[in-house]
Design a protein that fits this description.
heterodimer, A: seven-stranded mixed sheet, four-stranded antiparallel sheet, 18 helices, B: alpha/beta, 13 strands, globular
Chain lengths: 507, 481
């Protein structure tokens, strides 16, 4: 322990030389001791990363800036250093969202072969309707084959050689039609406004690179999808500012709160470049109504910023409310289209996350031009393009698939929410997505983020149920958890409830 | 109220970082406007600016036909669909990683070992280069790179990362070898300008030279990197295209030779199947690093460019077929050697010299005798004539940052033999005409002191920019896109 000699008291001659130097010394000593003891160690239960500063009333704490002035110290004789970005990425280990997924990966539940394994309720993956797609493949393998018997000589060339980086026009056309079917015919999409990427993850990052410079900010109504903290912030240098929504109005977006956040960010000298929303919402599952969409469009127009709407769950709705895409509102009203961009993908609605198909849909020619060039870093593999062109062109099949999938989602959702209700756990009202947003605040002690993480930890390590805690999603009200139900079958639900009850009973 | 143009877009989106306004791409634009086709457009521009390997696609097609279980789109393979479609783990399929590691070992004749656990995916070699830059360098940092080098590095390595590329000059008088003197000079120059050098980026086999690096030079680079504690990134994307001696030496071998003198934490390899296998459309980029932190970082970043699991499954099976890969590599090399010899012999026949090369899908030829002025402008003028009059899209040395004017890269593996013959015919005609014109001008020197190659006026029309750059495609593709 170093001996610090604070000069102030001594210099000012207050409290006498001995007391004046002794007391500040002692205080300093104890302060260092306290800090050293309370520094979070990597072995203890993972506290959330500093980005989820959800204890502050309105805004997250000022984020670490990835400013260009920040150079890591020269390591002539030290270990080979990564960049600051690289180091931050490697350290991003503590988020419960990722910790949970990692634990489950090694020991996943299976009703017959591994009934004691981890129940994977933390990953929004839909396994309910893959059999329908597999059946289609069995019947139609000839069309989606890697080789085309008719154009034998040229087919492998067509597949193997360089393609347009932002996807073939055939696939864009097929995807545009699929999106139209997903939105149930309420709006049609133009293929030349599409840039295809290898998944929605690079799609949203690419938009981040196009719409903002390092150090700029996006306003994001929270709770929001934990993956954005990685996808948008890591390499672009853009900051995400959570704008909290409240359970009292079912976590719906408030333009007033956006306005407040915008002004606060401005005061700190940061530039807000866009508002980022998900619709249907992840993690809440609610839909944004038409009025709010108009409010958002007015807001971004007034502030001269962009609106990014992640509509990746648009086809996975099951409630009585009808999904309204921002594209529909733009068609109907006379808003400025050039500041609106939609993120979409096939990972959720078509349940093929392994194939890596994401969509940037924009009305802005400059954004499309830039994004199509940036797509070279994340292009869709050609055999997958061929398979999907063939599958998506079968409109009858797609329409049937979407309908059956919706029914299955609805039934599983109802079953799951009911099961939770029996345990005394209420869920936010939701009409889409693969999850429910459950209020377990009565089971956490203390009523804080710490209590929430304690419950999360018990659920994961004792009950072997992996759910996503609200703090990972930047929810300011502790005790909310996102539970995905689409990796389960009907018979698994009682098992899930039993295990959850084990923990909630003891609380 | 509309958006006033570029004001609310980022610098990345509105700047020139994409590099498509350089001369390298003008040739491609000319090709896009008038692509050669043996039957439908025999007078079109022949694409010789795209290093694509189409020589062995027939072997792959045959394999795929014989192995339907490798594709989920067949009766035999469809049972894998559910597991594959759902699998989004960024570690990738274990069999895929094992197959890639095995293939990389085979391409190096078994002289290097690769650990499947270090194989990290990325969106093509393009994505791999960018990811490595993100992992190793901060904005403003620099990597040293020997010239001439692949033009797209300027985009892939620098655009979104903010990292700089500083040249290590190489000269034709010693066959463009990297010398320790030039390396040290480049490093010193950067230090003097207060630029922090984070590493060296090399391509081995070289693009555009087509030469493999000798052991001594590799050892020098590794030693230098160790002494200065900087990284060494080796792009070995053409490692399977070495068709002639000297034997290929990978940096992996140098590391294995004497691990005690070389810190593995500094060595990283970038690879892809786009050249060796000829499947750029599959988008398979690989980062192989000996540094655990880099593997971890790159793996997380691979979420931005994962390989489709459908493709992983196919390749796991294909590259896991030992007999097939042995035959493929051998046959590919044989066909490349044959093509290389035919092309360089054809050029030699009209007095065009190529740099002696033993790898790659192209040759590096010197057209200095045809230059009016031995300057960059002279080279640019000659290049415009070749693209617009001779109708060959070859790539000028200046786009590769070559310090000596008059060098050009011509690709020959992205076409069939007849097309190559057509290209050679055109070159012969052009060179003979140019020589005749030179001779005639000498005798008429009194009359016409400014010797000019006749330039058709219409080349000005052809260099008008097209609104969006379409990806270059081989003349053989009857693409429906």
């Amino acid at each position: 322990m170093r001996v610090i000699v604070p000069l102030q008291a001594v210099v000012q001659g207050r409290g006498g030389l001995v007391l004046g130097s002794l007391i500040p010394c002692a205080l300093f000593y104890f302060l260092q001791f306290y800090l050293r003891r309370n520094r979070p160690s990597s072995s203890s239960p993972p506290p959330p990363s500093s980005a989820s500063g959800s204890n502050l009333p309105e805004l997250a704490s000022i984020p670490r800036s990835l400013s260009r002035g920040l150079l890591s110290p020269r390591g002539s004789f030290g270990p080979a250093r990564l960049s600051s970005r690289g180091t931050a990425v490697v350290r991003d280990d503590d988020n419960p969202y990722y910790v949970g997924l990692k634990r489950c990966a090694d020991d996943p539940y299976n009703r017959s072969t591994n009934p004691q394994g981890f129940l994977l309720l933390g990953l929004a993956e839909n396994r309910l309707s893959l059999d329908i797609i597999q059946d289609w493949l069995v019947k139609n393998w000839k069309e989606s084959l890697l080789l085309d018997d008719e154009e034998e000589e040229l087919s492998i060339q067509g597949l193997a050689t360089y393609q347009p980086y932002d996807g073939s026009m055939d696939l864009k056309t097929a995807v545009a039609e699929f999106m139209g079917q997903v939105m149930q015919g309420s709006v049609s999409f133009n293929p030349s406004h599409i840039v295809l990427t290898a998944g929605a993850t690079p799609a949203v990052e690419t938009l981040g690179f196009c719409l903002a410079d390092p150090g700029d900010a996006f306003l994001v109504p929270s709770p929001y999808y934990p993956g954005w903290d990685r996808d948008i912030k890591w390499r672009t240098g853009v900051e995400l500012i959570p704008v909290p929504c409240r359970s009292t109005d079912n976590f719906s977006i408030s333009i007033a709160a956006l306005e407040l956040a915008y002004n606060q960010v401005k005061k700190r000298g940061m530039k807000v470049r866009a508002v980022l929303v998900s619709n249907p919402s992840n993690p809440v599952g609610s839909l944004i109504d038409r009025e709010t969409l108009c409010g958002l469009l007015d807001f971004v127009m007034e502030k001269n910023i962009h609106l990014i709407s992640d509509e990746i769950f648009a086809g996975s709705t099951y409630g009585s409310d009808k999904f309204v895409s921002v594209a529909e509102v733009l068609d109907a009203e006379s808003f400025d289209k050039s500041r609106v961009h939609i993120i979409y993908g096939l990972s959720k609605d078509l349940a093929v996350p392994g194939f890596r198909v994401g969509v940037i849909y924009s009305y802005n020619e400059n954004v499309l031009a830039a994004a199509s060039k940036l797509a070279r870093f994340s292009s869709i593999s050609a055999p997958t393009q061929r398979l999907l062109i063939s599958m998506l062109s079968d409109r009858k099949f797609i329409s049937e698939y979407l309908a059956v999938n919706r029914v299955r989602l609805h039934d599983m959702h109802a079953l799951f929410v009911d099961g939770l209700k029996q345990l005394g756990i209420k869920c936010a009202s939701s009409s889409g997505g693969f999850y429910c947003w459950a209020d377990m605040s009565m089971f956490i002690r203390p009523y804080s983020e710490k209590g929430e993480l304690k419950l999360w930890d018990n659920l994961l390590n004792v009950a072997k149920v992996n759910v996503t805690p609200g703090s990972s999603c930047h929810c300011i009200e502790p005790g909310w958890f996102r539970c995905c139900f689409t990796t389960l079958t009907e018979k698994d639900v009682p098992t899930v409830m039993e295990r959850i009850q084990k923990i909630t009973k003891s609380n | 109220m509309g958006i006033p143009g570029d004001e609310i877009l980022s610098r990345v989106a509105t700047g020139d970082g994409h590099g498509e306004n350089t001369s390298y791409f003008d040739g491609w634009k000319a090709y896009d406007n008038d692509p050669f086709h043996p039957i439908h457009n025999p007078n079109g521009v022949i694409q010789m600016g795209l290093a694509e390997n189409q020589l062995c696609l027939d072997l792959m097609r045959d394999w795929i036909r014989k192995n339907p279980q490798a594709s989920i789109c067949t009766k035999e393979g469809v049972s894998e669909f559910e597991a594959i479609a759902n699998f989004q783990d960024y570690h990738g399929l274990p069999d895929f990683r094992k197959a890639i590691a095995k293939f990389m070992e085979k391409a190096r004749g078994g002289r290097a070992r690769f650990d499947p656990e270090r194989i990290v995916m990325s969106g093509g070699a393009t994505g791999a280069q960018e990811t490595i830059a993100f992992c190793l360098a901060n904005p403003g940092d620099a990597f040293l790179i020997p010239t001439p080098y692949y033009p797209a590095f300027d985009r892939d390595f620098r655009w979104r990362t903010g990292v700089q590329l500083l040249p290590i000059r190489c000269h034709s008088h010693d066959n463009f070898k990297i010398t320790e003197a030039e390396l040290a000079a480049a490093y010193r120059k950067a230090r003097d300008s207060k630029i922090r050098v984070k590493g060296i980026l090399i391509t081995n086999p070289s693009n555009p030279l087509g030469t493999t690096m000798d052991r001594e030079t590799l050892r020098t680079l590794v030693r230098f990197a160790n002494e200065e504690r900087i990284h060494l990134v080796c792009d070995e994307i053409f490692s399977g295209t070495v068709f002639d001696g000297p034997e290929y030496v990978s940096v992996a071998e140098i590391l294995q030779e004497d691990p005690s003198t070389c810190d593995g934490d500094l060595i990283h390899i970038v690879y892809s199947l786009s050249k060796d296998l000829g499947v750029p459309g599959f988008r398979v980029g690989i980062i192989y690093s000996y540094n655990d932190a880099v593997v971890s970082c790159a793996r997380r970043m691979s979420s931005f460019g994962l390989v489709s699991t459908q493709t992983q499954l196919l390749l796991a099976s294909m590259l896991g077929d030992d007999d097939f890969t042995t035959d493929l590599l051998a046959e590919s090399r044989r066909r490349l050697m044959h093509r290389h010899r035919a092309f360089t012999a054809g050029l030699e026949g009209v007095g065009i010299r190529c740099l002696q090369s033993n790898a790659g899908l192209f040759c590096w030829m010197s057209l200095k005798p045809l230059l009016k002025d031995a300057t960059a402008e002279g080279e640019a003028e000659l290049w415009r004539v070749i693209v617009n009059e001779v109708k060959l899209n070859i790539s000028p040395g200046s786009s590769f940052h070559c310090t000596e004017p008059g060098w050009f890269r011509a690709c020959f593996a992205n076409m069939d033999e007849e097309t190559m013959e057509t290209a050679l015919r055109r070159i012969r005609t052009f060179v003979r005409r140019a020589n005749d014109a030179a001779t005639a001008a000498k005798t008429k020197k009194r009359w016409d002191t400014s010797l000019r190659l006749s330039l058709p006026r219409r080349f000005e029309e052809m260099t008008v920019l097209t609104p969006r750059l379409m990806s270059p495609r081989s003349p053989l593709v009857q693409a429906a896109t």
